[in-house]
Amino acid sequence: MAGEQSYLMLFVDETSLYNRIVLGHLLPANLWDPLPHFLQTWLRNYLAGTLLYFISGFLWCFYIYYLKRNVYVPKDAIPTRKAMLLQIYVAMKAMPWYTLLPTVSENMIENGWTRCFSKLDDYGWTLYFLYLSIYLVLVELGIYWMHRELHDIKPLYKYLHATHHIYNKQNTLSPFAGLAFHPLDGILQAVPHVVALFIVPIHFTTHLALLFMEAIWTANIHDCIHGNIWPIMGAGYHTIHHTTYKHNYGHYTIWMDWMFGSLKDPLEEDDVPKKAK
After folding, report:
1. pLDDT value, residue 269
2. Is the distance from CB of 227 to CB of 234 less than 8 angstroms?
């Protein structure tokens, strides 16, 4: 029992370190140090998530809309400032709730309720990559079906997912749309990351990194640029999802859509006008 408590303290020490690094650089100590550990962790996740959203969004928009203007995206497909500001507004309203999920997952890990492990030496590199692969497959499967049900179950679509699907054309989609969801919608689509913790052993820091990588990944798949890197579910596929509402529900890869019959290839879309001619 003492050994188990000692091991769980490794997670607490690690989250406390992350709290000190982020909060210590952004806020005076008297504003966050008296807070309970859970609230410190939530505040750290909120500030880190917000910074990541703005930094990735602004850099990506600056690159594709200004430095590479008319190279990747035609001028008439560039979203207006009004559209991007609305996306930022929706995302910022939801951010306090989004960041509650990793805070809760960290609390469950600290209490030993999950199969998370703290040290890479616990399993070694071979099992680390094996478990990570299984974890990612479970997350991909979970997000696919969660996303698909948010479309297929009409009340869920009407009251939750429709908030995101007002961005349904190239000139309304931007990297800032990546987190522009109803708060509960965004949380539901990230829940598979947490459910997988109870099924497969996963390295704690890797789990946190993957959760925060979501902000960068969702910015990427909303920029309307088709990278065409098999089997990645890039923006070309996701743009089709926003225009047809019934294809390409996947997150990282095209495999789930291929397996369950909902895949639509952007290159096939591009070929339609040519065949018509």
Report:
1. 57
2. yes
**Of 4, 3, 32, residue with least CA distance to 18:** 32
Answer yes or no: pTM beyond 0.70.
yes
Tokens describing residue 209: 């990194």
Q: For residue 275, what pLDDT is reported?
A: 39
Nearest in space to 240 (alpha carbons), one of 165, 141, 136: 165
Phi and psi based region of residue 124 (left: phi greater than 0; alpha: psi -120 to 50; beta: remaining): left
Contacts 24+ apart (CB under 8 A), 119-126: 119/10, 120/203, 123/201
Closest to 41 in 3D by CA, of 64, 61, 21: 21
Integer Cα distance of 266 and 107 in angstroms: 41
Report, in angstroms and rounded to the nearest whole number, the Rg of the chain calculated over CA atoms: 20
- Would you kindly state where each structural domain of the chain is located, as residue ranges? 2-224
In degrees and rounded to multiples of 5, residue 253 shows phi and psi of -130, 170
Tokens encoding 170: 């190239």
